[in-house]
Amino acid sequence: MRMVVAYIRRVFKILRAEVLVLPSRVAVLVFIAAVLALPLVTQDYYILRIMILTSIFAILAASWDLLSGFTGQMNFGHALFFGVAAYVTALLNLRLGLPPYFSIPLGAMGAVLAGLIIGIPCLRLKGSYLALTTLAFPIILMGLVFAFPGITGGELGLSGLKKLTGSRVADYYVTNVLMLVLGGIMWKITDSNTGIILHAIREDEVAARAAGINTTRYKLLAFCLSGFFAGIAGGLYAHFMRLAGPSTLEVGLSFQVIIWSVFGGMVSIYGPIAGVFILNPFMEVLRIFLDNFPSLPEMRMFIFAALVLLTLRFMPEGLIPWLRDKVESECPRCKVRNVFFRRSCRICNAEMT
Amino acid sequence: MLVDILIDGLIKGSVYALLAIGFSLVLGVARIINIAHTALYMTSAYLIYVGTKIMGLPAILCMVTAIFLTILLGLLIYNFFIRPIQEHEAAMLISTIAVGMMLQEVFLMIFGGHYLGVEPLIGGYATIMGVRVTNQHLLALGLAIIVLVSVRFFLMKTRTGLAIRSTANDREVANLMGMNVTGVAFVTMAVSVGLASIAGAIVVPLVTVEPTMWMHPLIMMLAIVVLGGLGSIEGSFVGAYILGFAESLVVFLLPNGSFLKDAVALTIMILVLLVRPEGLFGVSFEEER
Fold first, then answer.
1. CB crowding A84-116: b at 16 or more within 10 Å, else e
2. To bridge B38 with a disulfide, which of A195, A220, A278, B217 should be the other Cys (CB 3.0-4.6 Å)?
3. What is the structure's pLDDT at A348?
4. What is the mean pLDDT of chain B?
5. Per-residue pLDDT at A74 exceeds 90
6. CA-CA distance, B228 to B225, in Å (whole number)?
7. How many Å apart are CA B7 and CA B13, to the nearest integer?
8. Nearest chain B CA: its distance from A306 CA (Å)
9. Where are the transmembrane segments (chain B) (predicted)?
């Protein structure tokens, strides 16, 4: 009993000393609480559906950030991982009858395999070459999907998968808790030694190699990790929509992932997640709003593109880093972040400029 | 069959060469991966459609006006949305994607998703080795080759062309030698957009005009630029004809060809990259740091 009390006291101490002092950390806490509490407020079928898809895409965007943001391996074909995992999951579920909790991890392993296969030729390439080459793989695969409709279902895709879980609320908790956990894991990876090495590869690959790091191995690791997380998103999508179609491999989806991530703010994991959670529900609200004016032409995507263009015009770092720099500032002496209105640093008491 | 493939491949190759050369110029000089490049090609096609079909103006006038308007639009986009965020590569990339999407949506709003067409500039057909080839195809081929030759002349023989090539080669040294790098970037952008809009004007009678017509050329163009070596004009030229012929061979010979045309072109690109990671004509220069 006393241990429990001591433990709770410690949690409170950490909360007061480390979390509540910074607005960004409070925002993360509020976000997690809001995600977990949403079904208590509303169980509307449509709202939950939007939030489920949002959380699936958040996993996808964060996994793109792990590869392209942190490691600097610009990937224009991230839909490949998503699509491969969706198709593998669908085939395993339909042909072998595996339940979702087996088929989704196996589908993700399929995406890891895809990451290895494309990683090996791509490791020789850098920068723009790499970006434009990775764009090719999902398109090649899509061509194959259309050319062999017997296995892949062609244009219609594979449909009739088992449901993810029995009910919509359970679906919501599965996808959103997974999103929070996987996001946390990815954030921890970027904070670990491996993450620092990946960061070093992005900043200066030659210097990293000179420091004795086998950059090839670490880049391949980044491809596999990113493929795994994106693959889980793909598997969840296939089971939730009960469909794996060619839309999961489209160029549009690859571009969409990049737009979400850069809009939210690259190289931060939380940026892309926030980007998806802002843009995706916004698009749905816009759809409902525009449905009230049936005389207007279809202008949803136009508004989306204009919004992204204007945001990046004035905040090229992305939305979340921009906001963060507005409410927090870095101590000039000890590099700890502080709330913007503090006169002196909360750790070392140095004067903030 | 053979002549069909030959003519089709030559036209496709020439159009892709126009697009890819423009794209490589901007990539070399201003370091912009301009995804909206083929969207501007589409813009010129739509402007010609408006001019000839809706306003009923003569075709030649429409083509010239469309090319000028597209260049103006390209320069405005460059000045207001791309140049201010030049330091941020990712943001610049997304901005060009967003511009492409916006143009697509604008045309979708105005014209709907209908398949539109423009009448050929000249009717009739010629018979080459027993195969009928429409005069429009021959005209398109001739125009494309004339433009390609004059671009070559412009880049190799004029002072502006020299400035463009040297800025692409080394931006900083060009700046130190007293060249106006920003001005060169503007000129390059104008030439590049001009080439895209000429390509649009040339092919508009041969293709269906619709809001997603920029996607397929975009993918082919990116493949060509990587295949030929980034920033290399000769590479883009050779790569364009290789992939143009590959595409028409696949479409004419394979049963499910039109589904596989992208896949085959991109597989060729990846195979070449496995052997030569810097592309066919690329030079592997020192890493920029």
1. bbbbbbbbbbbeeebebeebbbbbbbbbbebbe
2. B217
3. 84
4. 86
5. no
6. 5
7. 10
8. 7
9. 15-36, 56-78, 90-116, 136-155, 176-207, 213-231, 238-257, 263-285
Express each pLDDT in A296-330 by its tens digit.
777 888 888 888 888 888 888 889 999 988 888 88
Predicted model pTM: 0.88
Under a CB-based contact definition with an 8 Å cutoff, are residues A163 and A242 in contact? yes
Rounded to 5°, angle at Cα A75 from A74 and A76: 115
A317/B267 CB distance under 8 A? no
- Tokens 């990815």 found at: A186
Q: Please tell me which residue of chain A has the smallest CA distance to B86.
A: A316
Contacts of residue A154 in chain B, CB cutoff 8 Å? none
Residue A121 is predicted with a pLDDT of 79
- Write down the pLDDT at residue A177: 95
Query: Chain B residue with minimal CA distance to A74?
Result: B90
Amino acid at the residue B140: A
The residue in chain B having the minimum alpha-carbon distance to the alpha carbon of residue A257 is B94
* Tens-place pLDDT, residues A97-118: 888 889 999 999 999 999 998 8
Residue A73 resides in a domain: yes
Which residue range(s) make up the domain with A212? Answer: 42-250
CB contacts of B261 in chain A (<8 Å) are 143
Q: State residue B284's pLDDT score.
A: 56
Instruction: Give the residue on B whose Cα is nearest the Cα of A144.
Output: B260
* B273 to A126: CB separation less than 8 angstroms, yes or no: no
Instruction: List b or e across B101-125, with b for residues whose CB sees 16 or more CB atoms inside 10 angstroms.
Output: bbbbbbbbeebeeeebebebbeeee
A185 part of contact set with chain B, CB < 8 Å: no
Task: Please tell me if residue A142 touches chain B, with a CB cutoff of 8 Å.
Answer: yes
Q: Which of A126, A128, A140 sits opposite B267 (nearest CB)?
A: A140
ipTM for the complex shown: 0.81
Domain coordinates in residue numbering, chain B? 2-211
